[in-house]
Amino acid sequence: MVRTGPPHTPPPRPVAVVAGVVLAGGVLVSGGLAGGALRGFLDRMAGVVALVALSVAVMLGLATALRGLLPPRARTAAQHLHRAFGVLGVGFLLLHIGVKVAGGRVAATAAALGWGSGDALVGLGTLACYLFLLAVATGVWRGVFATRRWIRPFRILHGASYAGWLTAVIHGLTAGRTPATWVVAAYALCLTATAAALVHRRLRRR
Ligand code: HEM
């Protein structure tokens, strides 16, 4: 049966969307304008914080969908944390892009297009960024998809974050400094556990 009632979560009002876009632009520009020690910190750490936060956001999002695994209250808490880590991750991602462009590490057009920097591993960062933005947009308009007819398209579009995460991990571990072995091992473990949980969920649905 197709659900015809109002969506669970109302879509954001246009003023909230405009405010969000202006805020995101402000964060991106602040990354570029930062100076001194803050600039050094953002240059070294903004991408790292973005990757850790978005990794946690993706895994928490999956945990909320595993109905048998967590009791309803824990799933609600996971849902809140999923959104909080998503916002934190996207914020640091914008700072990361701003500081790398301002530092001349990549041109603004190459950062936007994912092409032209002469480094395909940097281009992967742009691809990851767009996949995460797609996940954010579908998350913000989640209520619009809250009918049986639209839940499948929602899962596919919001699930772009899995591809975004994998791409971001490859970018993050290869585009900059050489990571420590334990860092590579930790990401490999998280990706493997997530892939196993996705397979488990698919088999259970069948
Ligand atoms: C438009 C999108 C992106 C651009 C233009 C970009 C640019 C760059 C560049 C130029 C580097 C090399 C740093 C250096 O050698 O100084 C780098 C590294 C890195 N990026 Fe990105 N990136 C983007 C997206 C992402 C995303 C989506 C993530 C993770 C969520 C991420 C996380 C990292 C990490 C962890 C590093 C290694 C640490 C570092 O050197 O800063 N980046 N990025």
UniProtKB/TrEMBL annotation:
Transmembrane ranges?
12-33, 45-69, 81-101, 121-144, 156-174, 180-199
The molecule here is called: Ferric reductase
Species: Streptomyces diastatochromogenes
Record lineage? Bacteria, Bacillati, Actinomycetota, Actinomycetes, Kitasatosporales
Q: Which UniProt keywords apply?
A: Membrane, Transmembrane, Transmembrane helix
